[in-house]
Automatic annotation (TrEMBL):
It is an enzyme of class 2 (transferase). This is diguanylate cyclase. InterPro entries: Diguanylate_Cyclase, GGDEF_dom, Nucleotide_cyclase, PAC, PAS, PAS-assoc_C, PAS-like_dom_sf, PAS_fold_3. It catalyses: 2 GTP = 3',3'-c-di-GMP + 2 diphosphate. It comes from Dyella mobilis. PANTHER family: DIGUANYLATE CYCLASE DGCM-RELATED, REGULATORY COMPONENTS OF SENSORY TRANSDUCTION SYSTEM. NCBIfam families: GGDEF, sensory_box. It holds the Pfam family GGDEF. Its EC number is 2.7.7.65. CDD domains: GGDEF, PAS. It comes from the Bacteria. Gene3D superfamilies: 3.30.70.270, PAS domain.
Amino acid sequence: MNLIDSKLDLDNDTYKTLLESTRAIPWKIDWATMQFAYIGPQIEALLGWEQSSWQTVQDWADRIHAEDRDWTVNFCVAQSKAGADHEADYRALKKNGDYTWIRDVVHVVRKENGEVDSLIGFMFDISERKRTEEQLAGLRRELEELSFKDGLTGVANRRRFDIVMETEWNNACRTKQPVSLLMLDIDCFKQYNDHYGHLEGDQCLKRVAKLLTVAAARPRDFVARFGGEEFIVLMPNTNESDAYKIASRCRELIAGEHIPHDGSDVSKYLTASIGLCTITPECGDEVRAFIEMADRKMYHAKQRGRNTIVNE
Ligand SMILES: Nc1nc2c(ncn2[C@@H]2O[C@H](COP(=O)(O)OP(=O)(O)OP(=O)(O)O)[C@@H](O)[C@H]2O)c(=O)[nH]1
């Protein structure tokens, strides 16, 4: 016996005390009978079930959340049969009806002939870690959403538009379906800001964004703020005449809001100019050229006196 072994020549009571004073909960299952040979008394403090209520593997399986049960049991049984040490995270049912996250770390003990003799392991309470992970995942989702959203109006930002446009463009190339693009710019918005103030201008942009989402309401229609007082509406699977109807609805909804615009050269209410184009793209066509075309048409709408749609 070496020095370490002799120092660790502890009696059973000492081992038991050591095992039962850890935060992790020790247990042992006899493989032949599928009965608990032992489980630490700490289990009661964690889950509320008395130590004596853990008799069989079924007691363990019954106290696993229904959504985690099949996976956990199948995985642990398969690993144990294969003689592989393993670990599993699952939600365990507490006596009061709540659930808590557990990590079970399992060691497979084999007989000399190689057959599985028993399983021994520790259950760890990982609820705190899971809570932190869930919070972090939530924050990540929020951050991702924010990075694709225009902070003022709540519609998609330019970055998101670029991604969606690329996807829909490739899709239209493949399926040989038309895609339409509407570029909208509020008329005389500089004067609006000058007259009503920048904060009122912000409110106005929010209202216009909302109206566009009402006008372009098909599931794949996509409204984004292109920049400043310019918005863009992408309409996949939409031909020229349907796109024109949506563009007219956008123009009419904005004019119909009767947002006072005393500084406008066009009307006493807020209006917008729209450039509209439709294409069934061929492989090799440039998406950028298509966006520029919509922009040019919007510019022509400005030249033609504003509050109008140019699509030819
Ligand atoms: N309130 C507000 N104003 C903005 C925002 N972004 C851009 N603008 C304003 O939009 C105005 C755009 O002015 P111009 O590009 O001269 O266009 P316009 O006055 O609308 O003239 P036309 O487009 O020719 O009808 C500028 O005064 C910008 O300051 C914003 O987020 N909030």
